[in-house]
Amino acid sequence: MNRATRFALAAPLALALAACSGGAEDGDAASLDGEAIAAIPAPDGESWLDVANTTVEGGFVVGNPDAPLKLVEFASHTCGACAYFAENGVEPLMEDYVSTGRVSFEIRPLLRDPLDVTISTLARCGSPASFHPLADQAWASLSDFSNTLSSNAGAYEAAMSAPENERFVRLAEAAGLIDWFAARGLSADQARSCLSDGAAITAMAQKSSEEATAANVTGTPTFFLNGQRIDANQWAAVEPILQRAGAR
Description:
With 248 residues, the protein is an alpha+beta fold. It has a single domain (3-14, 21-244), classed as Glutaredoxin (3-Layer(aba) Sandwich), CATH 3.40.30.10. 49% of the residues lie in helices and 10% in strands. The protein has 13 helices and 6 strands. A 6-stranded mixed sheet has the order 1-2-4-3-5-6, with helices on one face. A hairpin with a 2-residue loop joins β5 and β6 (228-229). α1 packs across α12, α3 crosses α6 and α5 packs across α9 (164-175). The longest helix is centred in the C-terminal third of the chain and has 17 residues, at 198-214. Mean pLDDT is 90; it is low at 1-19. This is DsbA family protein.
């Protein structure tokens, strides 16, 4: 287990409540400018908004798999700025761009702390189609999770001292996550099964670390369009870049 993986699995509670860290140097968005792209119809009877898959990079993508514009967000489930994007950017991104087949949208988790690991594990415990909706709802409830966990600091410390196959189950219970996800279709038994799979969680954290290192990403949210980092981290700046790239 490398240093980044150990950090993600054993960082203290304070990190779960910390602000997002800064990203690396941005690319030249002008090189993405392109001609207008015509809408690409989904197969008969389908919507691109219902097409969801996992990626080899460990992400979750929604939309046309062959979309000419591929937007990737490195995001952390305990990042307030990511929560702000989910609240203010995801709906117009999905409705105005992903639905047209011009743009696909991938969330690539960058795990920062134990609460982040727990939420990410539960969000991916169901089908690929459920990941984005659950992630967005979890960001909307981030302050509730953090406040509940802060009020149960003793339970948090006990969870982090527990055996690996019990650690994240106990943390989820302390943060109220078992009941929260159960209310959204993920049964308590299924949640506990995913959270007790230490090997899968370690592999997830390892993959997150490797992908962030390879892309030189140190903070969230960080966006890439067609493999190029863009100088934007909120919707008001992301949308004009998509439009200049051809989503218009």
